[in-house]
């Protein structure tokens, strides 16, 4: 064993955002940059000695180099064992599953999720704790504080590179490295939750689906489960090979970026069901033939029918949604007589609720859905859940959603992203909004919309009492409509303003309006109150989902 202690100096800005530390690949390629952050993580985990770490990523550019570095650092920092996915691959939900199943101490996930990859793209890293979930804010803040005072890191220097492309066991400076099948644990967990026989019968009856893996990490998982175990025909999974640059695309499953799938799902010859997931396979998009549904509606429909699926037959103890996510799930929770928790944006806020048995299903408007089976959102899980519902009910995606609207009403919903705003301008916009908050309540905005309350969302975790403030400015209208403004915490260039728009419509005769039209008055009010065009100098949002 040859442990080297390398002197280093802190890099500013190693503060994890909504989901881990994300920077340009070129930033991560600087000498000591990754090492400093990893050492800062290890330094905040004194109990790591003799423990097991799970390691893998979404296969993007720099994944392989980072795996070699982290293996050496884990060996030099007292870990007894690292479980690394073959090829350095593990999806985010698979890391969560492996940590939980194998009783590991924690895991490091190498991914910038839906951000583009390649040498000019983004890279990222995040730490997940013993429960399999993203490090809570207390821990990410401690990691950041440590990164600002770091003076050295420890790395094992003598050994050869580890071959992590073949299953097997290696020794690295006294530490065991096990190269594991990235799919096996996850696939077994899916078999416990879903009715594989019913889904097999659905395909055998001639139904068809298209799953777009977006050249990201879900490909091997989707192929093994959909085509391998459920008998879907070869070719059901498209873009199934993980590529270091995701084929040059944003691996972001929404109608703006998953254009190939949207095209495949339209027209009379289209498959019955469509799904997609993002870079690290924790997001999902669900489509019917010529039918796109919002993630907020997806969460609500899954909750409504959860007991049709074996893993949830006993019913739900609660639902949790991020604050900007529409209130469609709240109505289902009310009908079921269970609580619906409202948390800040980011999956880390669901962890305590799940651990405490206060929620079964969780969801975010940003194409994230999940449950207590792991502590991450889970893209393929959501697709399988839908597939199980289609098989169990014999109905189509559109039929299930329309019936849901008829019963509960429709929450028209859209998110407008204004990307690449210079940070000072975006900060000025948010400061202006916050300053105007006391004057907004009671304002009549025309079109029958008056503001009942306006605030900056704050959250007190019901389990550990921790408080998170400044989580998004909310305008709450008397008719139940909402506008929410917040700045993204996952970008790597300038600032992204997210504007979330929601309007409730109870009357089934009015459930067929074009979404942007139904939200037209709210879109106008958002700009009037926040001065988006004035501050950003832009005419229109860059992405509308
Ligand atoms: C975005 C989404 C948020 C999600 C986060 C991580 O964060 O809005 O809901 O949890 O991405 O998802 P932000 O701060 O940019 O709005 V992933 O799949 O990129 O890890
Ligand atoms: Co993701």
Can you give a write-up of this model?
With 545 residues, the chain is an alpha/beta fold. Helix 7 (196-204) packs across helix 13 and helix 10 (295-305) packs parallel to helix 11 (328-336). 32% of the residues lie in helices and 24% in strands. The longest helix is centred in the last third of the chain and has 18 residues, at 423-440. The model has no long low-confidence stretch (mean pLDDT 97). The chain binds alpha-D-glucose-1-phosphate-6-vanadate and cobalt (II) ion. Cobalt (II) ion binds at residues 113-114, 278-280, 282-283. Alpha-D-glucose-1-phosphate-6-vanadate binds at residues 18-19, 113-114, 278, 282-283, 322, 345-347, 364, 366, 368, 488-490, 498.
Summarize this structure as a short list of keywords or feature phrases.
545 residues; alpha/beta; 7-stranded mixed β-sheet; 6-stranded antiparallel β-sheet; 18 helices; 26 strands; globular; binds alpha-D-glucose-1-phosphate-6-vanadate; binds cobalt (II) ion
